[in-house]
Amino acid sequence: MYKLGRGNRDKVQQFMTITGASEKVALQALKASDWHLEGAFDFFYSQPQISAVNTRHLEDIFNRYKEPDGDMIMVEGISQLCNDLQVDPQDIVMLVISWHMKAATMCEFTRQEFIGGLQSIGVDSIEKFRGKLPSLRAELKDDNKFRDIYNFAFTWAREKGQKSLSLETAIGMWQLLFAERNWPLLEHWCQFLQVRHNKAISRDTWAQLLEFVKTIDPQLSNYDDEGAWPYLIDEFVEYLTENGFVQRKR
């Protein structure tokens, strides 16, 4: 604080004493309010993520789970994190958490991803993190967030260096994601892929399936055979009708 005038130094100290915030947060709030204390308090309390998170605590949490001889949280650390959060590693909330962390790869968190994600979520302890799980899970009910998480999952789940998603992984992700939406054709889709396709899934197919699920009713009454759907979805519709799973009304 040596670069600040005495009046501003006093404001920083007063702000820290009243709020319990760090010097960095105090400076951020005061600068945002043009050095008016009342405005700084308003800014601070309207930004729960800023007020709630202690960066030093975030570093401690990361160090608890990272590899002993590296600077990444890998499978073993994530398993321990899930145990401490009291969630199954296969729980979809872990996908939501990975989305907040902007994780590049499944079952891996860099220091920057992990700490940035906790800041985004607004937690700096495992207890607070555990308490946030219901609200994180509820984000899947928001259509826009669900779309973002769905699109994120494609890149996150594919193997490094691959442009497409392996069929086995894609099916697992679809079963996880669409269980939230209760899509009645999900099992038929997975069976169709295993019987008729048996190849990796492209990004276009991944993205277009979500549009299909959102816009086409399960009886396919509003499906347009001349529409610009990927060939795989056209074949799926044929598979449903040929096998009598759906009786289309034209």
Automatic annotation (TrEMBL):
Pfam families attached to this UniProt entry: Cullin_binding, UBA_4
InterPro entries: DCN-prot, DCN1-like_PONY, PONY_dom, UBA-like_sf
Entry keywords, A to Z: Ubl conjugation pathway
Domain of life of the organism encoding this protein: Eukaryota
GO CC terms of this entry: ubiquitin ligase complex
Any GO BP: protein neddylation
Gene3D superfamilies reported in the protein's UniProt record: Cullin, PONY binding domain, DNA helicase RuvA subunit, C-terminal domain, EF-hand
MF terms in GO: cullin family protein binding; ubiquitin conjugating enzyme binding; ubiquitin-like protein binding
Residue ranges constituting the DCUN1 domain according to the UniProt record: 53-241
Functional summary from the UniProt entry: Neddylation of cullins play an essential role in the regulation of SCF-type complexes activity.
Protein name: Defective in cullin neddylation protein
Organism of this sequence: Miscanthus lutarioriparius
Biological classification of the source: Eukaryota, Viridiplantae, Streptophyta, Embryophyta, Tracheophyta
